[in-house]
Amino acid sequence: MTDIITILGIESSCDDTAAAVVQRINGKALVLSSVVVGQEILHEAYGGVVPEIAARAHAEQLDIAVEKALVQSDIKLEHVDAIAVTSGPGLIGGVVSGVMCAKGLAAGMNKPLIGINHLVGHALTPRMTDTISYPYLMLLVSGGHCQFLAVLSETEFDRIGGTIDDAPGEAFDKTAKLLGLGYPGGPLVEKAAKNGDPTRFKFPRPLLDRPDCNMSFSGLKTALRRARDLLVKEKGGISYQDQSDLCASFQIAVADTLAEKANRAIDIFKKTTDSKNFAVAGGVAANTVIKKELENIAQKHNFTLLSPPLKYCTDNAAMIAWAGIERYSAGLVDDMTLAARPRWPIDHKAKPMLGSGKKGAKA
Ligand code: KG4
Ligand code: ZN
């Protein structure tokens, strides 16, 4: 008999309003639709996400995104098994908008409601895109998060290490802002770095002297600002080549740090399992230089580096629907008391990271 689960997923925890319909047919994922309405234009002028603007835009776009996702999937709302929604962590206005929308749909259609931790959505994506089994090692690296996780099941995650201050995506965005490149910074810094000399500026690789898998990126941003200010002082401004060299030197410092800590995370993970899967997700995983360095490390350990297609790496609702499928099939559903949570660590056992949640709105 065919075993089919169909879930509508909703995501609105940061600056993307997203809805998707995903099916699991005999264990395999089928994304029937994945609608993402970005808000970059609204936040561009501020060089970062403005929470109040984001919340208003979500409230305006959610029902439109849901309707589009249903139409594109050719599935009627009455035929979905449940409604899954990001209920944290994130910018609270956006999360509340999503949860209210999902509650309305669940109540109106008499469907089960499933609250999803946004980080869990990212962490389970490789199971949707590559049908891998538990456990696997995961690097979640985005605008608001950076952590190594051993993913053991749909409810068990061991944090092996993470950033103690800024996330790499945030550092990329700030670098772009400091150099007048625009927003979001990651792709613009990567583009500028293509013409740059990564050896010209010796930027720090913080915490590499420590044996653990924790990372820090805020000092890197300060070092970049100092280098820029020095150039401005010496020459009255920065040239196109200076800009490219700064970007290339910054990018390689991030890549080296992530690669070295990935090396240690794999060593730790290997002690607990025979699994050879290392997955990377989050917007920063789009960076080709970073991905190449991670690939080299994976290869060195005889691991496979899995990186889901970019559209499922960055914020989307298909990953929320998929996490919903995993919870639904394990009998884990919520009710109308489901609350929106601005902070919600993925590993309940681990001690909070120093500074974690400071900017932890995105993941
Ligand atoms: O996962 P994501 O779409 O949103 C969340 O943060 O949840 O990630 C967005 C982040 C931004 O900070 C953006 O600058 C960064 O990912 N990013 C990149 C690249 N593309 C996006 N960072 C480095 N290189 C890229 N090519
Ligand atoms: Zn995210």
Commentary on this structure:
The chain is of the alpha/beta class. The chain folds into two domains: 4-124 and 314-329, 2-Layer Sandwich (Nucleotidyltransferase, domain 5), CATH 3.30.420; 134-311, Nucleotidyltransferase, domain 5 (2-Layer Sandwich). It is 43% helix and 18% strand. The chain contains eleven helices and ten strands. It has helices at residues 40-43, 51-73, 92-109, 118-130, 168-178, 185-193, 218-235, 240-270, 288-300, 310-313, 318-329, and strands at 4-11, 16-25, 28-38, 82-88, 113-117, 136-141, 146-151, 157-162, 277-281, 304-306. It has a five-stranded mixed beta sheet with strand order 3-2-1-4-5, with helices on both faces. Strands 8-7-6-9-10 form a five-stranded mixed beta sheet, with helices on both faces. Strand 7 and strand 8 (157-162) form a beta hairpin. The longest helix is centred in the C-terminal third of the chain and has 31 residues, at 240-270. It is globular, with a radius of gyration of 20 Å. The chain starts with a strand and ends in a 34-residue tail after the last helix. Bound molecules: 5'-O-[(R)-(carboxyoxy)(hydroxy)phosphoryl]adenosine and zinc ion. Zinc ion is lined by residues 118, 122, 142, 315, 362-363.
